[in-house]
TrEMBL record:
It comes from Araneus ventricosus. It comes from the Eukaryota. This is Uncharacterized protein. The lineage of its organism: Eukaryota, Metazoa, Ecdysozoa, Arthropoda, Chelicerata.
Length: 183
């Protein structure tokens, strides 16, 4: 009930003071609808009745999040990257006209070791598609195979020198071996 009252209060305040009040709830709803349905008309309709931010605001929030600097991973935490790929229109046999995508997330545990989330700085202008596309570009590194195998570097030592076998040890004869294997 409290969530509903908060959402309604944010809708009323943002309707009365649209330029001075920026509701994180309405921005979140606008961003969610944009990511889930990709419908500019649905976001515009919900924005006109006061239930989410405008389409432009949702896009600006998404771009501001992309440009937000990545927080460093604290020492003493376990960090794991999880990646998966997706092939759209995978029913094609020839592999043509198929979109291949890969995405990943970074998981850090324990969560209490992470600093609290910083506020995201709002972009003053919308960057071009080329500027956004250049953000996540990583330099390609080529693998150079070393000719020498690492197995060749292993040195095997004679362990009989460290722990010599005594000469007076019992060595069984053939009838003794048959008797021991028969048990």
């Amino acid at each position: 009930m409290r969530r509903k009252l908060t959402a309604i209060a944010h809708a009323i305040i943002s309707t009365i003071r649209p330029r001075s009040f920026s509701s994180p709830i309405l921005h979140g709803i606008g961003l969610f609808v944009n990511r889930k349905f990709k419908s500019k008309s649905l976001i515009s309709l919900l924005s006109r009745v006061g239930f989410c931010a405008s389409y432009h605001e949702a896009q600006q929030l998404e771009l501001s999040t992309i440009y937000h600097p990545v927080q460093p991973t604290p020492a003493g935490t376990f960090c794991q990257y999880i990646f998966d790929n997706a092939d759209f229109n995978g029913a094609t046999l020839d592999g043509l006209n198929t979109f291949h995508s890969m995405g990943g997330i970074k998981c850090i545990t324990p969560s209490c070791s992470l600093p609290s989330a910083l506020s995201i700085k709002r972009l003053k202008s919308v960057p071009t598609a080329e500027e956004v596309g250049n953000l996540g570009v990583l330099e390609l590194l080529t693998f150079e195979n070393v000719k020498k195998s690492t197995l060749q570097k292993i040195a095997v030592q004679d362990l009989s020198m460290l722990n010599p076998i005594p000469s007076d040890i019992f060595t069984p004869c053939l009838p003794d071996i048959f008797w021991m294997s028969g048990k």
